[in-house]
């Protein structure tokens, strides 16, 4: 049985030599067509980003440099033609105003804090769940993931309203506690309610990327660690946890970033002292009708979020380059 | 894979004194005692008993599903035997988890920790045992020197070639100086040329460190070249146990004859059975086969005769031999440089056999070529009788 293969080998070798250095390069006529097609395919997402991200952002940026006016729309134009001169007026006052009033700085601080605490709790609850799903039998993984995604089938808003029904003073939770003679607990309209709402709503965004990294981990690494004398918990700390770091980072970003700008949950569940930047933005825009300040708040929020992420990605890219992984 | 025993210098660990397995007083270092492993209804390992002695390079050889890897994983502690016990250096390993066993394993995929450097990978096992820092550094350094990877200490696994990774895996499993090193298809992921070089390197390292090795392989050539003894496994049982040459020259069954090297098997019936010789009538061979020893059997009983391709001789002229002589036609010739493989179809039975002949002269007078009618003969002592 083995010799038949040996008999075949010299022939294969000869074939290789024949195709060797003097063989003409293979022609690929489809290459030229592919150039145009590729540009179209790559161009579509760029157009999308241009139309739905960059353009709106530039409009917001423009408004942030304007001044409030009783007009339609309610701000002064940036470029004005008056008395034979073209006036371009960029006003920094809106941005200065953000720092002059402690309200804004407090709101930014509070938003970052709430986002950080929520991300922490999402990680604390999400990691064991993702771990359990990733290590479950293959047949059970799909239904378990389905359960994580299932809440998305109901509108986000309705789910937050449902929490009002649970958390309010005479709500389900307090009725239940009342059976044991406990409570009632004042949760509704406090920070606690906001944390509960946020962690509940954003948990899937933490679990899914964590699951993805944990699921593809090579389990023989844990066997190797055990073989080298590491007990299961130490193996988790030394192998599983560091290897799931990309999932932790991805999940944390997916939770942290939208939570900073979250409006609905603090508005519905929070109390008057839950002053998050999303609510400030909303009231500037709709109550005060001060579009320029609202725009400045939005641009500043973007900077607060984007700059740290860009720095982080720059260093991560550099590190990967150093490790030759790119 | 051309007859490793003949064409490859044997690199196997040479026992200096009497081999331990021939010494009735020798105490086995690893004792596998009636071990069975079941997965549901499937019996992966079927009541295997095996003694392995200190300093051996022992090979478990078998195809996929033969139970060799399951047996290795039971030695490592990743699987617990359903029945039976395993003793390592006299200590019963039942219920001892992998992290408490004096055993290390080199994984087939190497299982290097991707987030650690070569150095950290090798130091990992020592750190688990809380070896003092200074000692870790010197022992890692020694291990790196042993596998010639000093310049790569700060690299991560993905920056290494396959051969380098294999050596890191070896260093990592050796650095704890285990009582027993398990190797799961240690050369399986390397290409052919590197594999041959590494075979010798592994044997040399094993001699240098003096640790008992048990390796699993499906590659008979690898097992023959490296091992001091081989257990051929089939369907969860040990089909044959012996040194490479014992298994090659004296296979005890059709399975091990066919698994190790290549072999021509002739079915026949016992025709004459005397104490000093026997004759097996074989239609397949086209002649009566004379054997130089008696067999314990009844006349008429079906038997098989195994003949290695290199132990048969081809010639165009009728040789002088009066016995063990048959005729055939050459249908295929494979020229391998040092030797040629001839496929011969025997007259009468039409059985296709393989014969290898060394290419001794550059211009043989009697050049055998395709479609030649040839005589096939062999020495009576070269045939092996098999009854199963």
Question: What is this entry, summarized?
Answer:
By secondary structure, chain A is mostly helical. Chain A is 72% helix and 2% strand. Chain B has two domains: 4-102 and 178-258, P-loop containing nucleotide triphosphate hydrolases (Rossmann fold), CATH 3.40.50; 262-386, OB fold (Dihydrolipoamide Acetyltransferase, E2P) (Beta Barrel).
Secondary-structure map:
The complex is a heterodimer of chains A (326) and B (388).
Chain A: H1 2-18, H2 30-64, E1 79-82, E2 85-88, H3 93-100, H4 102-135, H5 138-149, H6 156-167, H7 172-179, H8 191-215, H9 220-227, H10 232-243, H11 245-260, H12 264-269, H13 277-287, H14 291-322
Antiparallel strand pairs in A: 1-2
Helix pairs in contact in A: 2-14, 3-14, 4-8, 4-11, 8-11, 9-10, 13-14
Chain B: H1 4-7, E1 30-39, E2 42-52, E3 57-62, H2 68-76, E4 83-88, E5 91-92, E6 103-106, H3 118-128, H4 133-146, H5 162-174, E7 180-184, H6 192-209, E8 212-217, H7 220-226, E9 229-234, E10 237-242, H8 244-249, H9 254-259, E11 264-273, E12 278-282, E13 287-291, E14 302-307, E15 312-315, E16 325-335, E17 339-346, E18 352-358, E19 373-378, E20 384-386
Parallel strand pairs in B: 3-8, 3-9, 6-7, 7-8
Antiparallel strand pairs in B: 1-2, 1-4, 4-5, 9-10, 11-12, 11-14, 12-13, 14-20, 15-19, 16-17, 16-19, 17-18
Explain what you see:
The complex is a heterodimer of chains A (326) and B (388). Chain A has 326 residues and is mostly helical. Chain A has a domain at 111-289: Orthogonal Bundle (MetI-like fold), CATH 1.10.3720.10. Helix content of chain A is 72%, strand content 2%. Chain A has 14 helices and 2 strands; from the N terminus they run ααββαααααααααααα. Chain A has helices at residues 2-18, 30-64, 93-100, 102-135, 138-149, 156-167, 172-179, 191-215, 220-227, 232-243, 245-260, 264-269, 277-287, 291-322, and strands spanning 79-82, 85-88. In chain A, β1 (79-82) and β2 (85-88) form a beta hairpin. In chain A, α2 (30-64) packs across α14 (291-322). Chain B has 9 helices and 20 strands. In chain B, the strands form 4 sheets. In chain B, strands 6-7-8-3-9-10 form a 6-stranded mixed sheet, sandwiched between helices. Chain B has a 5-stranded antiparallel sheet with strand order 13-12-11-14-20. A 5-stranded antiparallel sheet of chain B has the order 15-19-16-17-18, with no helix packed on it. Helices cover 23% and strands 33% of the residues of chain B. Chain B has helices spanning 4-7, 68-76, 118-128, 133-146, 162-174, 192-209, 220-226, 244-249, 254-259; strands at 30-39, 42-52, 57-62, 83-88, 91-92, 103-106, 180-184, 212-217, 229-234, 237-242, 264-273, 278-282, 287-291, 302-307, 312-315, 325-335, 339-346, 352-358, 373-378, 384-386. With 388 residues, chain B is an alpha+beta fold. Chain B folds into 2 domains: 4-102 and 178-258, Rossmann fold; 262-386, Beta Barrel (OB fold (Dihydrolipoamide Acetyltransferase, E2P)), CATH 2.40.50. Classes of the chains: A mainly alpha (326), B alpha+beta (388). The interface between A and B is medium-sized, with 27 and 37 residues.
């Amino acid at each position: 049985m083995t010799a038949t293969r040996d008999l075949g080998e010299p022939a294969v070798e000869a074939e290789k030599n024949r195709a060797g250095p003097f063989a003409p390069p293979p022609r690929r006529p489809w290459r030229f067509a592919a150039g145009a097609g590729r540009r179209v395919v790559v161009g579509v997402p760029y157009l999308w980003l241009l139309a739905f991200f960059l353009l709106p952002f530039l409009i917001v940026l423009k408004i942030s440099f304007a001044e409030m006016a009783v007009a339609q729309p309610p701000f002064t134009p940036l470029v004005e033609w008056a008395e034979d001169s073209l006036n371009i007026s960029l006003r920094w006052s809106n941005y200065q105003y953000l720092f002059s009033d402690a309200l804004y700085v407090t709101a930014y601080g509070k938003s970052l804090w709430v986002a950080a605490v929520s991300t922490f709790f999402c990680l604390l609850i999400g990691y064991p769940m993702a771990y359990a799903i990733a290590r479950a039998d293959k047949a059970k993984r799909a239904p378990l993931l389905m359960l994580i995604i299932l809440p998305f089938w109901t509108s986000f808003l309705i789910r937050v309203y449902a929490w009002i029904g649970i958390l309010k003073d005479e709500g389900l939770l307090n009725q239940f506690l009342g059976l044991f003679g406990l409570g009632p607990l004042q949760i509704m309209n406090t920070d606690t309610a906001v944390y509960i709402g946020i962690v509940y709503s954003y948990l899937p965004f933490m679990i899914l990327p964590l699951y993805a990294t944990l699921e593809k981990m090579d389990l023989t690494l844990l066997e190797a660690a055990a073989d080298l004398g590491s007990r299961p918990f130490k193996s988790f700390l030394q192998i599983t946890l560091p290897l799931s770091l990309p999932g932790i980072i991805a999940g944390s970003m997916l939770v942290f970033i939208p939570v900073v700008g979250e409006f609905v949950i603090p508005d519905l569940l929070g109390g008057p002292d839950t002053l998050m930047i999303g609510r400030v933005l909303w009231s500037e825009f709709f109550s005060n009708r001060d579009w320029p300040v609202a725009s400045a708040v939005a641009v500043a929020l973007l900077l607060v979020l984007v700059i740290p992420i860009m720095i982080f990605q720059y260093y991560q890219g550099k590190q990967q380059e150093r490790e030759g992984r790119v | 894979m051309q007859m490793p025993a003949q064409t490859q210098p044997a690199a196997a660990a040479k026992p200096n004194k009497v081999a331990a397995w021939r010494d009735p007083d020798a105490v086995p270092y690893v004792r596998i005692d009636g071990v069975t492993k079941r997965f549901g209804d499937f019996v992966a390992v079927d009541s295997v008993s095996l003694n392995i002695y200190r300093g051996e390079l022992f090979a478990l050889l078998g195809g996929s599903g033969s139970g060799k890897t399951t047996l290795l994983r039971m030695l490592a502690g990743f699987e617990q035997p359903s029945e039976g016990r395993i003793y390592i250096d006299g200590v019963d390993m039942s219920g001892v988890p992998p992290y408490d066993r004096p055993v290390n394993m080199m994984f087939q995929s190497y299982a290097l920790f991707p987030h650690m450097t070569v150095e950290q990978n090798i130091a990992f096992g020592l750190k688990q045992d809380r070896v003092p820092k200074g000692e870790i550094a010197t022992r890692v350094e020694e291990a790196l020197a042993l596998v010639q990877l000093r310049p790569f200490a700060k690299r991560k696994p993905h920056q290494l070639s396959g051969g380098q990774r294999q050596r890191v895996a070896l260093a990592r499993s050796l650095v704890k100086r285990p009582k027993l090193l398990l190797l799961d298809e240690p050369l399986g992921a390397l290409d052919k040329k590197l594999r041959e070089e590494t075979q010798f390197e592994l044997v040399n390292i094993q001699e240098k460190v003096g640790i008992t090795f048990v390796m699993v392989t499906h590659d008979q050539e690898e097992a023959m070249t490296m091992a001091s003894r081989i257990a051929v496994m089939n369907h969860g049982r040990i089909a044959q146990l012996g040194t490479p040459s014992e298994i090659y020259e004296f296979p005890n069954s059709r399975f091990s004859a066919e698994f190790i090297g290549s072999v021509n098997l002739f079915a026949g019936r016992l025709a004459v059975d005397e104490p000093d010789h026997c004759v097996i009538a074989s239609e397949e061979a086209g002649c009566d086969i004379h054997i130089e020893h008696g067999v314990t059997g009844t006349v008429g009983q079906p038997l098989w005769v195994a003949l290695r391709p290199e132990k048969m001789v081809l010639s165009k002229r009728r040789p002088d031999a009066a016995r063990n002589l048959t005729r055939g036609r050459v249908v295929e010739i494979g020229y391998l440089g040092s030797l040629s493989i001839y496929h011969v179809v025997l007259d009468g039975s039409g059985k296709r056999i393989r014969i290898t002949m060394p290419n001794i002269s550059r211009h043989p007078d009697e050049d055998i070529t395709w479609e030649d009618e040839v005589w096939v003969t062999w020495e009576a002592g070269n045939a092996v009788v098999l009854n199963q």
